[in-house]
Write a structure and sequence with these properties.
Elements: E1 2-3, E2 5-8, H1 24-37, E3 41-45, H2 52-63, E4 70-76, H3 88-95, E5 100-106, H4 109-116, H5 120-136, E6 140-146, H6 148-154, H7 156-168, E7 173-178, H8 185-198, E8 202-207, H9 214-223, E9 228-231, H10 245-254, E10 258-259, H11 263-266, H12 269-280, E11 297-298, H13 301-309, E12 327-328, H14 336-345, H15 355-370, H16 378-388, E13 397-407, E14 413-423, E15 426-434, H17 437-449, E16 460-468, E17 479-486, E18 491-498, H18 501-525
Helix pairs in contact: 1-2, 1-12, 5-7, 6-7, 8-9, 13-14, 17-18
Length: 526
């Protein structure tokens, strides 16, 4: 199996994403996890004099080096008006004590003239002298040919001369960059093949995603001869982001038979994608290819039926190969196959053609027509399924509730809930306050049930989301409330729908508590 060298630039390019700001500790945690996965190169950042975070990161990493991956410090060629010995940025690269450096240099004549304000000949010297200087100090050097594909379109002779200068100076890899992210795959292939004829050293690709072609352009470059691929986890990066390393790694290894990660690490792509998203404080993209939560989610009835008979009818790879999992979504489109599949996962014996299955499907269709969605509220569906099968009796029954909200002159807002529920035939009357009406209802319900179910204190409400179902109805619109609850082992979501937001909240809240009690009961029986 041919080898492709993956180069992760999440810590530098990914850190330029709007809304992301990695601390030193964040970067160290991510670097260690990437090292565990065996990613060949990890670009840590730009240890420039004014960049204290990256400078400190490299200092810390030098004290405890990576074991599998090669850490890379990023910098630029010398300035036009100073020598390599006097350039502060090159000095910072040496001080970073990383075994490899990435030197970015201009290859588009427009940038040389308009941005650097220097001559084309001087730019060639800047590239050659900067790389030679780092090589003299024993470093592995990757030359990032910035704007190569744009430059090659308008002045191919100069763009290729830049690559020749880099090779002459001893660059180990020349990475061709689609810095503006506007190249097309055919243009990338032409550029890589031209570079291949011009220089003999290894070629790489660094693609941005402004045309939604970051991954496609990276794969096109590999097909044309590139053996080094730079990308970021989850496609993080400036503007529209960089090429997504998750999709690139999975495609190279699982579809193109090119070795880029240890086999065991391929099964950790999902885990790593979500780990980095958590540290970056970015919500995971559910529809992200390969590692998104919805990447192997099936909703249409004939899809569900097919994938249950043979997964590859509707899945291009096994979800487990990247650490993901198959999900069959419960909806009015799903059909009996999904209901039976869900029941089987709960150890409930149900056949596709049984009257109970038809009754459950009919109930699902009625509820979805009213605005319910069970795709993100599988705990509510499980309760519906068990109660329809006569396998679960509710632990409590609502008699009535009343909620008051009061705003006082001093700005304080108080909420109070008065609740009557029946537990084991016994009426419980309880009142409680809260920060808001839902909080007050939650407190009142817990107080009413605590004598009967002391384990309820382990169940916590962790998230609360509201969405208007039929916006055109204005203030009379139905709202859908999703409540997430958790205990010390797991989390689950429940749903409620009503024109009254308090009632929708009560449905979701009470289902969340009911499901938590059901889990405890089932655990005690094992």
């Amino acid at each position: 199996m041919a080898k492709i060298m993956l180069y992760d630039t999440t810590l530098r390019d990914g850190g330029q994403t709007e809304g992301i700001s990695f601390s030193v500790e964040d970067k160290i945690k991510i670097a260690r996890r990437l090292d565990e996965m065996g990613v060949p190169y990890i670009e840590g950042g730009w240890p420039a004099p004014q960049n204290r975070t990256d400078t400190e990161f490299f200092r810390r990493m030098a004290e405890d080096p990576l074991s599998k991956s090669k850490l890379v410090a990023f910098g630029s060629t010398r300035r036009a008006d100073v020598s390599v010995e006097e350039d502060p940025h090159l000095a910072s690269l040496l001080e970073a004590s990383a075994p490899a450096v990435a030197i970015v240099g201009k290859t588009w004549d427009l940038h040389v003239r308009e941005t650097l304000k220097t001559s084309l000949e001087t730019n060639l010297k800047m590239i050659e002298e900067s790389i030679a200087y780092c090589k003299k100090h024993g470093l592995e050097v990757i030359f990032d040919a910035e704007h190569f594909f744009d430059g090659y379109q308008v002045n191919p002779e100069f763009a290729l001369k830049c690559l020749q200068s880099a090779e002459k100076a001893g660059a180990d890899v020349i990475c061709l960059c689609d810095t503006n992210g506007g190249a097309l795959p055919d243009q990338v292939k032409v550029g890589v093949k031209a570079a291949r004829k011009t220089v003999k050293c290894s070629l790489g690709i660094h693609a941005h995603n402004d045309g939604s072609l970051g991954v496609a352009n990276s794969l096109a470059a590999v097909a044309a001869g590139a053996t080094h691929v730079q990308a970021t986890f989850n496609g993080y990066g400036e503007r529209c982001g960089n090429a997504d390393l998750c999709a690139i790694a999975a495609t190279l290894q699982l579809k193109m038979d090119l070795d880029c990660l240890p086999a065991a690490s391929m099964g950790r792509l999902y885990e790593m994608s979500h780990y980095i998203a958590e540290i970056a404080n970015m919500a995971p993209f559910d529809r992200q290819p390969f590692v998104g939560r919805s990447a192997f989610a099936h909703k249409a009835g004939y899809h569900l039926d097919g994938v249950l008979k043979r997964p590859d009818t509707y899945e291009h790879i096994s979800p487990e190969s990247v650490g993901n999992q198959r999900r069959l979504l419960i909806s009015d489109q799903a059909g009996g196959a999904a209901v039976v599949y869900k029941a089987r996962g709960l150890d409930i014996d149900l056949s596709k053609r049984s009257p109970q299955t038809e009754q459950i499907l009919q109930r699902l269709k009625e509820m979805e027509h009213e605005g319910y969605q069970f795709e993100g509220a599988e705990a509510s569906f499980e309760l519906l399924l068990r109660e329809s099968m006569g396998l679960h009796q509710p632990k409590f029954e609502l008699d009535s509730y009343r909620v008051l909200a009061e705003k006082r002159r001093d700005g304080r807002i108080l909420a109070e809930a008065v609740l009557r529920v029946i537990v084991d035939g016994e009426e419980q009357y309880m009142a409680a306050e809260g920060d808001g009406p839902v909080h007050a209802l939650d407190n009142a319900l817990r107080k009413a049930l605590e004598r009967f179910y002391p384990g309820l204190e382990e169940v916590k409400l962790t998230d609360f989301k509201v969405r208007v179902v039929n916006v055109a109805a204005g203030t009379a619109a139905k709202v859908r409330v999703l409540v997430e609850s958790s205990d010390d082992k797991d989390s689950w979501s429940t749903v409620g729908v009503h024109e009254n937001i308090i009632e929708a909240s009560w449905q979701a809240l009470s289902d969340g508590v009911e499901y938590g009690l059901l889990r405890q009961e089932m655990d005690s029986e094992e």
